From TrEMBL:
UniProt entry keywords in alphabetical sequence: Cell wall, Cell wall biogenesis/degradation, Glycosidase, Hydrolase, Secreted, Signal
Biological classification of the source: Eukaryota, Viridiplantae, Streptophyta, Embryophyta, Tracheophyta
Keyword Hydrolase: yes
PROSITE patterns in UniProt: POLYGALACTURONASE (PS00502)
Entry protein name: Exopolygalacturonase
Highest taxon listed in the record's lineage: Eukaryota
Family: Belongs to the glycosyl hydrolase 28 family.
Length: 402
């Protein structure tokens, strides 16, 4: 027994030793330090990072770009594929810090971008977007006098990508963006930005397919996870959100033009919201833009002091000035809420405010139990329905208005 225990302990130690080897084995390794990157947080390491990537990407066998411990000042950097192998890893042990101030992204909206790569793993590391100065500008002049800012990590036009164990702090704009990509898994990612930092969405998914998010812990000033138009087959599971604006599908219908905006087949499962302004939200602008949201399951969710735990808002207009207040051209159907529990910090815990011209249909509530918690008192919550059709089953509190 003691022998077995000793063996086991040895194995565990060996395993740990392998995990913390200074450089990953088994692949050609391109250490950014050897390209002249400096971990002092002061010297600009953009070029060494790009050169290490170029060599790794050219390698016919699996290749790893390795970022050792330390702080690396990196400006706007786009790591472009396609690469020779379909197994390129970007393994970060240290921290990447963005340049000071703002505007250095040349209005590209992006800081670190992977573009047109097939078979990529981005693992570990911290990205510090240093968004503080831009947030201060936006807080002082909210009406668009400041630049938009840069999203910290963007996976663009890529396929078969894993982002694993990344920590993203203080992005100027969105922390992680999946854009026009397929087969992307984002797991064990943590996001940290203040509750009052503007537009700092945790994970934003746009025009993508087969994207999964697992085990995310997100504290930020905007949506924890936002699902833009053109997405299908999304799986979002085990997300802790707060502070933040919740998990949102939308907003849709802001852009004008003929293209239909669609979101289809989304599962959001096992989520926890703490002190967020919304929980599970679908939002569209009151505009004639056509489109649909169809086939969404929100399951197993815990709310703690959330302003709007369950909400469909088809008259979304955050900054006012939506003069027309047209009826939304986006049709929302087949949306299911299963096993949602906890407390709302406003009396209306369930709100379906749907389009007059395209009423919501097939909205289903099953086992929902939400109370209204006002300071220390627990009171009854309410439901509110406008242009919404559907059904309720199991125990549903507050009583359904569908
Ligand atoms: C819905 O998406 C999931 C992945 O999230 C996928 O496994 C499933 O096949 C999709 N369903 C349809 C009907 O496409």
């Amino acid at each position: 027994m003691a022998m077995a225990k000793a063996m086991l302990s040895l194995l565990v130690h060996l395993h740990a030793a392998l995990l913390f080897l200074p450089e990953p084995a088994g692949a050609a390794v391109y250490n950014v330090a050897r390209y002249g990157a400096s971990g002092d947080g002061a010297a600009d390491s953009t070029r060494p990072f790009l050169r290490a990537w170029a060599d790794a990407c050219r390698s016919p066998r699996p290749a790893t770009v390795y970022v050792p411990p330390g702080k690396y000042l990196v400006g706007r950097a786009t790591f472009v594929g396609p690469c020779s192998s379909r197994a390129v890893t970007f393994s970060i042990t240290g921290t990447l810090v963005a340049p000071a101030g703002y505007g250095w992204d040349g209005a590209s909206g992006q800081w670190i971008t992977f573009e047109s790569v097939v078979g990529l793993t981005v693992s570990g590391g911290t990205l510090d977007g240093r968004g503080e100065t831009l947030w201060a500008c936006k807080q002082k002049q909210p009406r668009g006098h400041c630049p938009t800012g840069a999203s910290s990590l963007t996976i663009s036009n890529s396929r078969d990508v894993v982002v694993d164990g990344l920590k993203s702090v203080s992005s100027e704009l969105f922390h992680v963006v999946v854009l026009q990509s397929r087969g992307v898994t984002v797991r064990r990612v943590t996001v940290d930005a203040p509750a009052d930092s503007p537009n700092t969405d945790g994970i934003h998914i746009h025009k993508s397919m087969n994207v999964a998010v697992y085990d995310a812990a997100i504290r930020t000033g905007d949506d924890c996870v936002s699902v833009g138009p053109g997405n299908s087959n999304l799986w979002i599971e085990r997300v802790a959100c707060g502070p933040g604006h919740g998990i949102s599908i939308g907003s849709l219908g802001k852009q004008q033009g003929m293209a239909v905006e669609a979101v289809q087949n989304v599962t959001v499962k096992t989520t926890r919201f703490t002190g967020t302004t919304n929980g599970l939200r679908i939002k569209t602008w009151g505009s004639s833009k056509r489109g649909f949201v169809r086939g969404v399951t929100f399951a197993d969710s815990t709310m703690s002091g959330v302003d709007n735990p369950i909400i469909i808002d088809q008259h979304y207009c955050p900054d006012g000035g939506c003069a027309a207040r047209q009826s939304s051209g986006i049709k929302i159907s087949e949306v299911e809420y299963v096993n949602v529990r906890g407390s709302s910090s406003t009396p209306v815990a369930v709100s379906f405010d749907c389009s007059r011209s395209n009423p919501c249909s097939g909205i289903r509530l099953r086992d929902v139990r939400l109370t209204y918690q006002k300071s220390l008192q627990v009171a009854k919550a309410m439901s509110s329905c406008r242009n919404a059709e559907g059904s309720a089953s199991g125990l549903v509190v507050p009583p359904s208005c569908l």
